[in-house]
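dumping this here before i forget
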Amino acid sequence: MPAFAEGDGSVGSKDVAARKKEINSSWDIMANNNTTPSIAEFFADKSIFVTGATGFIGKVLVEKLLRSCPALKEIFLLVRPKAGQAAKSRIEDITSCKMFDKLKIEQPDSLKKLVVVEGDIQEPNLGISEEDTARLHNEVSVVYHSAATVKFDEKLSLALKLNVGSVQKMVALCHGMKKLEVLVHVSTAYANCDRKHIEEVVYPPPMDPYKLMNATEWMSEEMITSITSKIVGNRPNTYTFTKALAEYVLMQEGEGLPFCIVRPSIVGAAWKEPLPGWIDNFNGPSGLFIATGIGMLRSMLGNIDGLADISPVDYVCNLLIAASWHTGVHRPASPPIYNCVTSTTNPSRWNVVEDIAEYYTKTPLEMTVRRPSAFFTQNPFIYNYAQTVGAKIPSYFIDMLLQLKGKKPRMVKMCNRIYKSVDTLKYFTFNHWEWSNHNLEALQAVMSEEDKKVFYTDVRPLDWHSYIEAYCVGTKQYVLKEDLNSIHIARRHIRMLRNLRWMFNTVLLVVFWRVLIARSQIARNLWYFVLNLFFKFLRYCRATSSTQ
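structure:
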């Protein structure tokens, strides 16, 4: 039975120390083995099974595998039909997007290696047919399980099915795979966010997952919702809670399987590949970046000096591939866990994202309603005041104008969604954690120089300001599908918004002065004095220009 870290899981605990000694020994053996295949060689003629291929990480992972491991045999993709769209059609839509352009040019026939397997992680046996199950059992060597719900406020019952139940079904499927060399489970660095220091171990679960899942089978949805906060305890949401349970279930039921766990932190836009700044969703910081870009997010709750642990998606996928290579080649005695974070080696702080208003002013969004401006604050009153005056009140006026034009009002609804997102993320912007990354460092040490270049997992060269700027451009180009060639129109719109703001502030100042202040003789004299100085300045400027 796999061992778990007991107590507080601190660096000095016996379990952690023993684990490190065991890992060091296994890495040393591998480092001295000159016959170890490269990563690309390891995947040659192998069949791979990927869940979550329609998700953000899954897309990048599939593209990277096809492009950097050209000798692989095939990749089975578990996809469920959605909104009347067939599973195969969903994959065709994904592979037609810009991120696959480089692959199509370099290896035009590589997409033929994608095999769609219709299924659903909520269904028994993942919803896979008997015929497809038999094929997976006979052919698959490497499995990546990244399918999950990443919604922080997901209902507990559904989060348990998607994040914990799917692990049980995946493990059961893997036990029948005759050629299985490694199962990679994608968890989260925040699965143990109730601890300040997080080691590369699986901690005891916050609750017995089997009893909880059995209880939710007979409880009504209203009953589950009413006790969710008590069940989740000191974790901020159902996502981190169920991810912790999933790790425990994997350790329990995956005994005898070669597997590893990778825990990414906040997954952000691509650093280098498939395209710098590539992003395809509003999740995590992306939605807040866009809200700032359109001028609807004027302030953000959080500690500006706190660590912002954002992991570029290409860094995450490279680690997934490298981790599967090591586990498959060396078969460690205990499943390795990788904390896929950036703050340990290249820390950034939330103040770096304060510059996003400047970046969106240089590369503005077409749908901007106010000139971008934002700041971090730890004071809820200041945040609420800035959002109310700077965003919510203007959103009511904008909706009124939209209704007068016969259009559907949307700004107040958007503003409320932004409020909700900020409230959801404030747990992560106010707190910070320390993660050990001993396994990642050891993995880098045994990778060949060529593999380090192709499957880069060293984030020390990452310049955060350049990365965040590329991130902002990526939201414009890839999420909102805006053409960078028409950026001059967006810039002209930004200048117009700036002039309107200056005009409004000037009119407001004049009205305020004339109505509220200029009732006394002293105030009127001061007013005339200021006007006199202003006109003298204009005459001076005119005289100077005429003499030149």
